[in-house]
Fold these 2 entries.
Entry 1:
Amino acid sequence: KKYRVLTAAHCVADYDKNTSKTTPNKSHFFMLLEKPGGVNSVHKLEVLKIWEIKEGKDFAVLEAETDEDIPVAVLAKSGPKLDEDLRVVTMPIGSDVGLLLLRGYVSKKKMMSPETDGFNIEGMFVLQVAGLGSGQGSSGSCVFSLKQNAVVGIVTLAKSSPNNHTSLLVIPINKFNDSYKEYLQEEQAKKEAEKK
């Protein structure tokens, strides 16, 4: 069975703010499946597609092959509404507690500024997070809507205020859906061309 994993492009690629180029990095990626009883399994991930960060498409898709049955998340058709009840699982860099389940809500539907820290953030929304520990290392985490029971966004940046309040900048899932649909159509066209 093949499983696809959605994450932020800058988690698997290097982005040069001066040239606005996204380049796959040389790292190897693995998926760790934690199971009850401490019997974990590790699966190699192959990078299938990395989109251009300069276009505000900070997302990538990786793929793993395994005989194991893995629960998968459903992707929503659109991003969340204002004040919608959301959850995000993160594993911030330097955290001793491991994975954190955080509660959040959308406080601003769209960013006014088109860029921050060299990243194109047009169309992203702000997720206010209740809880400590979110921040650097949260990138690539999926944001889940309890109402829709589906993924509604991908964390791309974390911003901390002077009083340590963290806001996460999130790409709405519909932006990924559109790009992923185009990618699948391109892959299908390549396969058909190879048959000829």
Entry 2:
Amino acid sequence: TLVVVSTDNGVSWHPASGTSSWSYSWEPAGDGIYSLLSRATDLLGVVGTSGPAVQVTIDRTPPDGWLSINNNAATTTAAQVTLTMTASALDPGLTCEFFTPPYICGTLSVRFSNNGTGWSNWEAAQTVKSWTLPVGDGAKTVYAQLKDRAGNTTEISDTITLDTSQVPVSTITSPATGFATTGSSVTVTGTAATGS
């Protein structure tokens, strides 16, 4: 039995190695969706029909995207921030051109990090995520690593300055804790500051 394989939906055929158990080594020319077929010919020259085609996607192109923290704000007074992401898996046959950002186009997973080395678990990519920055004022970079269905990865990031010194503070100065009264009204006083 001679087995031949087609990687172009039957346009051309290539001999496989082996008979009842066979293999064919294929080097795709580029990214794309390929229809693979096989058929066998016996010793009398009778050619069998091809079985069902197997669709294979070859994708060597990493995903693309961008990340913003708090809608591209330069600073934040709180460690709890909102990440917004637009990302696309540049899969063959997939078009993302008519989407309006933020969007996720294609099958993508994502994981996040505050330092680029310790990562959260992989999860399905979404356009919005709540994230906590590390403690301490200063520049904070959040990293996101995108992974497409084929396993290609890309890293994107954004930076924001955490400045908790600008957080307004209010303190009650009167009445004091434990105050008791029989009156029908209580005057509350205090101080407020915009931060140092």
